[in-house]
Structure to design on (287 residues):
């Protein structure tokens, strides 16, 4: 080893020791101020510069989650730092956090790409079932949900699957038949032998009233926009209790409801509908 390398190693060792002492001081300060994000940031940076990658990942992730709801771009920056330092097993979890952050700001394309990275890591680790479970439980991926979800399933070799049900969305293959049974139940359609043409379908959908029930306002906006694009009328409710109140004055032909909601969840809401003969036969889709 050259003299230069020896001096460099000695200086590096002294710097690391100094950083470690500073980290310990900051950790003590953090005990008194557990929500002080500046202290967390200093610890994370010092851990990174000292080669304490496991600790750095931990604190960068804490920072990312702290900013997830308020400053999404900053949260993603911290998660990216953590991802670069993490081991492969941890990277899947971090990319999940990145995808979740993009969902909070409705950047669905970015959420989709982060989701692909989660799946790639699972496949590298031979964890296909974990990858599939992740896909099934993804929130709605915006207006391109059907395309994105299909592509994610194809990553794990499920190319021929006709249906893929997620926590907040369901898609059908492009060549699936039109929902003729639902159309036939719409007001204005009779049992006469009239073919359902696109023009007739549009006219019938214009009479359709859909009640969307979800505590996530982002999901409500997406669903109402999609319904509007095919001519349906729609209104929203934040939970089962509010939906029941709206049912009294707004008679829907279809109800689309989330499962997990405060006050009254989807299961309880559906049970209430079944108790009333006037609402028990309304088609009900649970997301």
């Amino acid at each position: 080893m050259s003299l230069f390398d020896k001096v460099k190693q000695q200086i590096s060792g002294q710097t690391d020791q100094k950083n470690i002492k500073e980290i310990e001081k900051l950790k003590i300060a953090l005990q008194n101020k557990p929500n002080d994000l500046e202290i967390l940031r200093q610890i994370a940076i010092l851990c990174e510069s000292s080669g304490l990658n496991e600790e750095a990942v931990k604190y960068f992730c804490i920072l990312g989650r702290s900013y997830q709801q308020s400053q999404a771009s900053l949260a993603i920056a911290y998660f990216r730092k953590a991802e670069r330092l993490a081991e492969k097993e941890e990277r899947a979890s971090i990319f999940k956090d990145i995808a979740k952050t993009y969902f909070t700001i409705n950047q669905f394309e970015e959420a989709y790409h982060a989701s692909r990275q989660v799946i790639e890591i699972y496949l590298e680790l031979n964890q296909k079932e974990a990858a599939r479970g992740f896909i099934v439980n993804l929130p709605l991926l915006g207006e391109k949900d059907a395309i994105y979800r299909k592509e994610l399933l194809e990553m794990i070799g499920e190319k021929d699957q006709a249906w893929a049900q997620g926590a907040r969305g369901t898609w059908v293959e492009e060549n699936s038949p039109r929902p003729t049974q639902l159309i036939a139940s719409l007001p204005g359609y009779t049992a006469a032998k009239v073919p359902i043409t696109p023009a007739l379908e549009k006219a019938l959908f214009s009479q359709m009233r859909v009640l969307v029930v979800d505590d996530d306002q982002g999901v409500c906006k997406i669903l109402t926009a999609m319904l509007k694009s095919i001519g349906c009328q729609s209104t929203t409710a934040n939970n089962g209790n509010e939906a029941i109140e709206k049912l009294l004055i707004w008679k829907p032909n279809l109800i689309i409801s989330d499962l997990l909601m405060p006050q009254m969840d989807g299961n309880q809401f559906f049970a209430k509908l079944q108790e009333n003969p006037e609402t028990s036969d309304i088609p009900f889709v649970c997301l």
Q: What stands out?
A: Residues 1-15, 160-181, 188-194 have pLDDT under 50 and may be disordered. The first helix runs from residue 3 to 32. Residues 208-286 form a domain with the Rossmann fold fold (CATH 3.40.50.2300). The chain has two domains: 12-172, 208-286.
